[in-house]
Amino acid sequence: MDRLYEFMIRQLDRVDGTFHRYVYDAISWENRMLGLVGPRGVGKTTLFLQRIKEHHSVDDTLYVTADHLYFADHSLLETAEAFAKSGGRFLFIDEVHKYPNWSRELKMMFDSLPDVRVYFTGSSVLDIEKGEADLSRRAPKYAMPGLSFREYLAIRHGIEAPLLSIDDIVAHREGVPGVDHPLPLFKDYLKRGYYPFGSDVDFDIELGQVIARTLEVDIPQFAGMTAATGRKLKKLMAIVSTLVPFKPNMTSLGSQIQASRNNIEDYLGYMEKAGMIAQLRGAEDGLAALGKVEKVYLDNTNILYNLSDGAEDVGTVRETFFLNQTRVGHAVSASRASDFQIGDMTFEVGGKSKGRDQLKGTKRGFVVKDDIERGFGNVLPLWAFGLLY
Q: Is the CB of residue 229 less than 8 Å from the CB of residue 219?
């Protein structure tokens, strides 16, 4: 196991602890086992390493990544058992979805090693309720999206913006201390702010690789798909990127990538879980709402800019941002009268000249405008919805 300890120490030496994702303080680390899931590139590994560096000792802690060559001839379970016998107490397993039989071995760890706390990260496609062993009662799952506009301000510019609720925004409490003109920063966020590596010189290339690896490796690996199916997912993503937002026609999409309409529904579901697209559903309650997808979007504006090749539609960018940021803490649905519904509030998203006609007859209707710095009346600035987490 010396190789694993050496690997952990190298990783800890490189981690930066100056900024913590919002999930960091929300995790109940007292759990005997827990999972942190999210799309590629949102900072799950960094969060684990920060936790180890700030709260643990290498004397009783081990960090491993499940695709390490060590596991070519060693199992995770036997590694955990040897770690426990040597006095180990905290085992961090990164990218557990890359290890076959992950859920069964995690369950055995939980049942047989009561003195070892096991924390694992995985792809957002990973479903701990549907693995070989149901871990839902043993391991709470924390979801980690990409950076909010608020987090982007902190990590990229050292600006501490207040955390707002939708009620705060509606009451016009938006504002960033020391920033009189947030719009230039907001425009940069839309293009390269959602991912922590957005400041990299080769961000566009790196994000393209994240998209390709998610579609060609992560989803097929989890769902037991062939390489040919992975290529179909990539083709489907290319088609979706030219249509968003749109109401999906499963038969039409299937014919374009030579797949059945039932498979298309599954593919879109996997792509949504993996952080590639977002599906906006109707506001109906109960069984009537199941499967009723009203619109399909790309997951976030960074992906939209990456795939649009300079031809992005500004209206789509605005709606994508609003949905991406609000869905983290709220149930967002399609509105019959306007764009989005959150509880009893209806939101129409548009530019500076957007009117209020579509809000007539709604109980609590709001116009969310891009290109304005402050709100007034029932008009709200779009950028402020990036301060919700």
A: no
Cβ–Cβ < 8 Å for 298, 206? no
Task: Please report whether residue 342 resides in a domain.
Answer: yes
Q: Which pLDDT score, from 0 to 100, does residue 132 have?
A: 60
CA 3, chain centre distance (Å): 31
Please, are residues 55 and 61 in contact by the beta-carbon 8 Å criterion?
A: no
Q: Are residues 252 and 285 located together in one domain of the fold?
A: yes
Residue 264 CA to residue 267 CA, distance in Å, equals 5
**In the chain, how many domains are there?**
2
Same-domain check for residues 177 and 315: yes
d(CA 110, CA 248) in angstroms, rounded, equals 42
| Residues in the chain, pLDDT under 70 | 128-132, 284-291
Q: Specify whether the CB–CB gap between 194 and 302 falls below 8 A.
A: yes
Report how far Cα 51 is from the mean position of its chain's Cα atoms.
Answer: 20
Residue 230 makes CB contacts below 8 A (sequence gap 6+) with: 215, 216, 217, 219, 220
What pLDDT, on the 0 to 100 scale, is given for residue 290?
53
The per-residue pLDDT for 26 is 95
What are the angstrom distances between the C-alpha of 208 and each of 80, 211, 214, 272, 309?
35, 5, 10, 17, 12
The answer as to whether 222 is a domain residue is: no
357: tokens are 């006609």
Cβ-based burial of 176 (10 A; exposed 0-12, middle 13-18, buried ≥19): buried
